[in-house]
Amino acid sequence: MFPGMFGKGPKRASKVEEQRLIQRAKNIKENPSIVIPECKNNCFLCKFGRVKRWVKKLEGAKEDKKKLERYSKKGPKLTRAVAATMLLANEGKAKLLATTKTPKGSISYAKRGDAGAKYLAGIQHFNDPLLRLMAYHDYAKKGFYIYSWKGNLVCTGKVDAPPKGYIRERVSSSNYQFNEKKKGYSCVHIDKETTYFTLTWLSPGLTFRVCERCAHDGSNLFIHLSSGIASPNNEKLFQFKGNYLMGCKSDCDKCITLGNRTPVKDSTKKQYFSGSISDKALIEKIVSENRSALKKNSEVFAVGEMCYGKDANSFLNSLKYEEWEKDILKRALKLKGPVLLEQGTVNELLEMVWEKHASELLGVMLDDEATVEDLIKEGEKEHKIPRDIIRQARKKKTELDELSALPSFRELPRRGKFTHDLILHYKTGGPEEALNYIKEINPRDTRMKALAYGFLSAIGRSESHRWKYDDNEVETGEFLSSYFEGLFESSGNDYAHKLQELLKMSGSTETIVLKDGTELR
How do residues 134-149 score in pLDDT, each as one tens digit? Predict the structure, then answer.
């Protein structure tokens, strides 16, 4: 009944503790027969028949110290503990106490006679319906069933037959507001779709169902219902199973998640019946065990607690992704098949297929194998997550697209090269990269600086850099600004001609030569 009990070394009792112990001892002295359970089975041979005879002896020796001392060392251990406790009442003091552990914490008791720790502790705490069962532990090991609750101590012999009064008291004192059903009790949410566990009390045929919303972190329903029972094995009096239910966003003919529900692991049952995990922790384990099984052999698409059945499109639409990522995610799903995601993030999905299929996923966006391999190697080196790598790939694709839209040159004069490189940095890396390029080149002649200021004016960054340019460079740059704007939007040979026109408007006489040898004027 109380595993792990053992006596501790003596300690000095506080005055209050001593007074309470003596008062309980006096109650036993006044009515020692209360330790005899009420019989509810009419056994042919009552296990407590010998105890009854010894209790009569104790009743006749209430004030006889010598007899009580003798009775505390002979006879049934239960009556030895009663005799020892009656001695305490007569002495009126208990300066030194021992302690023992119970599920309700450590308790103190006074050592007397030869009864043993659990008998002494149980009798000296007889006012507590649960603690007094320590004195009946050995009877339970021999096959007897004893039930203890407020004002009642009942023995049903070797028959598991919990009294109705015990059942009512345990149910009413639980942490749950149960709705009473025909064959048991349920929390208020069971009729709705939910995850719950079912604890079945076998002998009375009662089921108790508690859902994940109601399950208490500080409650263990099995321990609560069985704590007032001393039996050969309380665990065998009950059975439980888990009911894991996901939210449904599909119209499957048959629910796959229900059909593949995973039985509760033996290790989880052991933890629950030992009282080491709560009702809430039990629910969490039921969810975890079922989700692990679904992940391992998934036949559905699911995110968190929501199942999309075989509907890959609805599953995909539930994820938070950018539109340009959709084709890559479709390929990932084609490679992975049905999948269960915990967080429902893009990266969570990518990571499931990345190790084997990174090249194929990036290939959806880039057809340059060398660039793809470089991105993968760089990502591994810098420990980037897959989603960051595909973002890098998108940036690279943008750069390549921008570059492919521009013409090739055989010869670019100095100012033409500066302007063209400035445009490339802007198109592939944005304003900051272009600003860094200007800083790196640090143009010094007036026409180059006018070109730089014209670019800054076109992208709206001229004000913060005005102090670096003289009035003539600013005036020319502002004039060139519109030509830069036209250059930003052009491509192919149109870009080449507009670049040549920009150079001419800047006052340069330089000539651009295309790759095919054509000179622009």
Answer: 999 999 999 999 999 9
